[in-house]
Write a structure and sequence with these properties.
With 570 residues, the chain is an alpha+beta fold. The chain is built from 14 helices and 17 strands. Component of the RZZ complex.
């Protein structure tokens, strides 16, 4: 019997070792009734606190994939847990295979941690069991075994576990020793809301994680001495955002870039009822009229002052509006709100180039303008204009350059004006040396960064020093990583800065942890209370003995408890 168990342990070890050495993360079916997955531990939220970002093995029951109409395979996690008996068998094989003192097992290198989904059919309602190795040098000296049990939701706070019970659970598994008890909690500051018992989902969220020592009671509010970290995830395009107008402008810019890349452009609904050509004609006539008036005024007076023209007034009301839009930028604003075809773009730019060629206008532009149209305007100052063939995709290229130039200045104007960064730190995002497609991507990164800053500045009211630090963090991130609205930016803050947001609110997650031992031999027993189940592979049914008061404002909490045992190899 013993030799058969050891043989099974070696076979299981060889399978795991083979999967560990492979670069592929494809599922592997073991003995027909078990599926083994290799993934990062943070992919499963409930395991994240124990596994972090390190690779782990997940064992579960193989379930046939269900194909949706779009042919994307979907797996129902509620069908994939194993029995507790099978789970314990897998853990025993894992533990035996790592014990060099077992005669028939070689001195094997350490395996990734192993976690097994369980069906909660046992009296303790076990949802996960896990094991991870403890190494002394290159040798595995012990294994930590984990057991995670879950209870359905309750609004009765008296039914929740107490700290004394948690301490007793810890002492059951570990000899008397000095223990510490720490707390952590997460509060939602911004995101999904509940309206008339219906959850309105938001693509953006701001949560805050607290950590503190010396917990005195279950569900206690984090003290002001806690460490606090904001988790900021912002999706652009929210109509409530002060940057929504800039988002629309960026989307038009993106549509031009996509059109050049794919050959097809999805034109946005025009914001102006007047056609693009008529808007351009009116703009040119306005400039000619202004120039004529200024000449007449100059002849009547000797005063030589800068004229006040339409250039000095913002054209649209935006959070990042500037009062110094030059001719090219004002033309861009009119065209992006009105063009609906390639023909529109070509016709508008033809009107402008002809007005420049015949000297009808001598518009003012920023000195650092880099678009093709800006170069033609500079040439017009000397009555020498290169011929430009406004056919094919050339007009679209020209309009794209105009938009890139204008929006770069918008973002610079805010970031530099608010002293959140310097031009040196923006060089990567402002470079015109890369192709236009990449320029649009980098501009989109800047926009996302600003949406993050706006959320923390206008909604949370964070002070300048925190916004400055957040800006530097976002800039550094986006110099290295691709554009990603799902990314969570982190920012450490003092709890006092946001105390009015959370002190009277209920946490979405609250955790207490009793620990003893040191270093790799530290063992922990924890309880987590959450507003939703942390385990996704079982269905929690309401307690028939509990009467729910729909008018009650008391939150319902699910309970998840994790116990740890340390198995030393003598």
């Amino acid at each position: 019997m013993g030799s058969r168990v050891i043989s099974s342990a070696k076979e299981f070890y060889n399978t795991l070792r083979s999967l560990q050495d492979q670069e592929s993360n494809n599922p592997f079916i073991y003995e027909e009734d078990t599926q083994i997955l290799k993934m990062n531990g943070n992919k499963i939220p409930v395991l994240n606190i124990y596994c972090g970002n390190q690779p782990v093995f997940i064992c579960e029951k193989p379930v046939p994939k269900i194909y949706e109409p779009d042919d994307q395979p979907m797996t129902k996690t509620s069908n994939c847990p194993l029995t507790i008996m099978k789970a314990r068998q897998l853990l025993s094989w894992y533990t035996l295979s790592q014990n060099a003192n077992v005669s028939a097992v070689d001195n094997n290198p350490a395996l990734h941690p192993l976690w097994v989904r369980c069906d909660m059919s046992d009296p303790a309602r076990t949802a996960w069991v896990g094991a991870e190795t403890v190494c002394t040098g290159n040798k595995v000296s012990a294994v930590k075994l984990y057991s995670m049990t879950c209870k359905g939701s309750t609004v009765d706070k008296k039914a929740l576990i107490t700290l004394d019970v948690l301490k007793q659970e810890h002492k059951k598994r570990h000899p008397p020793s000095s223990t510490a008890i720490k707390g952590s909690a997460r509060f939602s500051l911004f995101g999904s809301t509940v309206v008339e018992n219906t959850t309105v989902e938001s693509q953006s969220s701001v949560t805050v994680d607290f950590k503190w020592s010396h917990v005195e009671s279950v569900l206690e509010t984090p003290p002001l001495s806690s460490t606090a970290t904001l988790n900021i995830r912002v999706a652009i395009g929210d109509m409530r955002s002060p940057m929504y107008e800039m988002y629309r402008e960026l989307e038009f810019l993106q549509s031009l870039a996509d059109g050049l890349r794919t050959g097809e452009t999805e034109w946005m609904e025009p914001l102006e009822s007047t056609s693009a050509v008529n808007l351009t004609k009116a703009f040119l006539e306005e400039l000619q009229s202004t120039a004529k008036t200024l000449q007449e005024d100059a002849a009547k007076t000797a005063e030589n002052s800068k004229p006040t023209t339409d250039m000095d007034t913002p054209i649209f009301n935006s959070f990042l509006e500037r009062g110094d839009l030059d001719f090219v930028e004002q033309l861009w604003v009119r065209m992006r709100k009105s063009v609906t075809s390639y023909q529109d773009i070509g016709d508008c730019l033809k009107l402008v180039t002809e007005a420049l060629r015949y000297g009808d206008i001598k518009p003012w532009i920023h000195r650092d303008s880099s678009s093709s149209l800006s170069k033609l305007i500079l040439q017009s100052y000397h009555q020498q204009i290169d011929h430009v063939s406004l056919t094919g995709v050339t007009p679209v290229h020209m309009l794209l350059e105009m938009g890139l130039d204008k929006m770069r200045k918008d973002y610079i104007n805010y970031l530099i004006g608010e002293e959140l960064t310097t031009l040196n730190h923006l060089c990567y995002f402002l470079s015109t040396e890369v192709d236009p497609q990449e320029q649009v991507i980098r501009l989109r990164k800047l926009h996302h960064l600003l949406e993050v800053i706006m959320t923390c500045g206008t909604f949370l009211g964070l002070p300048y020093d925190r916004l400055f630090l957040l800006t530097q963090s976002c800039l550094q991130h986006y110099k290295t990583y691709p554009y990603d609205e799902e990314h969570e930016f982190k920012l450490q803050i003092k709890p006092a800065l946001i105390s009015h947001f959370y002190q009277k609110e209920n946490p979405v997650l609250w955790r207490a942890e009793v620990s003893s031992g040191h270093g790799l031999h530290e063992v922990r027993t924890s309880v987590q209370l959450s507003d939703r189940p942390l385990v996704d592979h079982v269905i929690f049914e309401a307690d028939p003995n509990e009467t729910v008061n729909v008018d009650s404002e008391d939150p319902a909490f699910f309970t998840t408890m994790v116990c740890c045992s340390l198995v030393n190899f003598a």
